């Protein structure tokens, strides 16, 4: 989104300020009147919630990507080759974003539940507030491995393997224009302009660069492993 913001500013001359956090906590802030003009959610259900509450404009909702999760480790020797390997007690701390309010963390929990290892992993789980903090746990080696977004993994020196998308509910991600407290129609129009830019060919090119599947595309098969980025 920083890259998208830079490109939008260059094209329009308008400034964009980002506030990054877990989708669920941002949705709560918006419903309580936080002055945000656009909400980019890692799961479309949260967009539906803020629109239903009246804080955002349902007719501006736009799907922008489908996210993917991977297992990431700083040390290639500690990286499991598949999700089932996490049942091994040698993985003493496994980081994921809090499933209660972070869609990527919920997807990780769903994947582990589906392969039957969540009960084993749960006592060793370390929760980040969002995927960025979750990655930091693994980068600082406060966890051997972390479930993070592919978009973070491809820009972070380290090692990762993909999690099979069929193991969790789709991470359909959407944008919506919000009322932003009492900020007026001009801000709403700017918000809609930004949303349209994300869905433009330039915006889609940036999203694709970071590993997102774009609306209208089919999920490609993920490689069995990714090369080390060290």
Question: Would you give an account of this structure?
Answer:
With 230 residues, this protein is α/β, with parallel strands linked by helices. The chain contains nine helices and eight strands. It has helices at 2-12, 23-31, 44-52, 103-114, 118-121, 131-139, 150-153, 185-198, 201-209, and strands at residues 38-41, 62-67, 69-73, 94-97, 125-128, 145-149, 159-162, 171-177. The strands form two sheets. A five-stranded mixed sheet has the order 5-4-6-3-7, sandwiched between helices. Strands 1-8-2 form a three-stranded antiparallel sheet, with helices on both faces. Helix 2 packs parallel to helix 3 (44-52).
How does the SSE layout of this entry go?
Elements: H1 2-12, H2 23-31, E1 38-41, H3 44-52, E2 62-67, E3 69-73, E4 94-97, H4 103-114, H5 118-121, E5 125-128, H6 131-139, E6 145-149, H7 150-153, E7 159-162, E8 171-177, H8 185-198, H9 201-209
Parallel strand pairs: 4-5, 4-6
Antiparallel strand pairs: 1-8, 2-8, 3-6, 3-7
Helix pairs in contact: 2-3
In short, what is this structure?
By secondary structure, the protein is of the alpha/beta class. Helix content is 35%, strand content 17%.
Describe the strand arrangement of the main beta sheet, using strand numbers: 5-4-6-3-7
Order of helices and strands: HHEHEEEHHEHEHEEHH
The beta-strand count equals 8
**Helix/sheet category:** alpha/beta
N- and C-termini, Cα separation: 24 Å
Oligomerization state of this entry? single chain
Mean pLDDT: 90
Low-confidence stretches: 222-230
Shape category: elongated
State which percent range the strand residues make up.
15-25%
Helix percentage range: 25-40%
Main beta sheet: strand number and arrangement? 5 strands, mixed
Report the C-alpha radius of gyration, rounded.
Answer: 18 Å
Q: Output the number of helix runs.
A: 9
């Amino acid at each position: 989104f920083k890259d998208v913001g830079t490109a939008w500013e260059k094209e329009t001359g308008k400034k964009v300020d980002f506030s990054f956090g877990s989708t669920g906590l941002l949705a709560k802030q918006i419903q309580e009147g936080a002055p945000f003009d656009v909400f980019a959610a890692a799961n479309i259900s949260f967009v539906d919630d803020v629109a239903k509450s009246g804080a955002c404009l349902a007719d501006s909702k736009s799907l922008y990507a489908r996210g993917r999760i991977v297992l990431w480790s700083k040390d290639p020797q500690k990286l499991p080759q598949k999700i089932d390997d996490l049942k091994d007690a040698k993985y003493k701390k496994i980081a994921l974003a809090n499933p209660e309010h972070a869609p990527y963390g919920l997807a990780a929990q769903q994947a582990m539940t589906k392969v039957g290892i969540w009960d084993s992993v749960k006592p060793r789980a370390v929760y980040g507030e969002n995927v960025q903090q979750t990655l930091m746990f693994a980068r600082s080696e406060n966890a051997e491995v972390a479930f993070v977004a592919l978009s973070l993994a491809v820009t972070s020196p380290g090692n990762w393997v993909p999690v099979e998308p069929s193991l969790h509910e789709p991470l359909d991600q959407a944008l919506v224009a919000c009322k932003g407290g009492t900020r007026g129609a001009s801000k709403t129009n700017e918000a809609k302009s930004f949303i349209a830019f994300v869905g433009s060919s330039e915006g889609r090119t940036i999203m694709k660069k970071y590993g997102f599947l774009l609306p209208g595309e089919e999920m490609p098969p993920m490689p069995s492993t990714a090369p080390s980025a060290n």
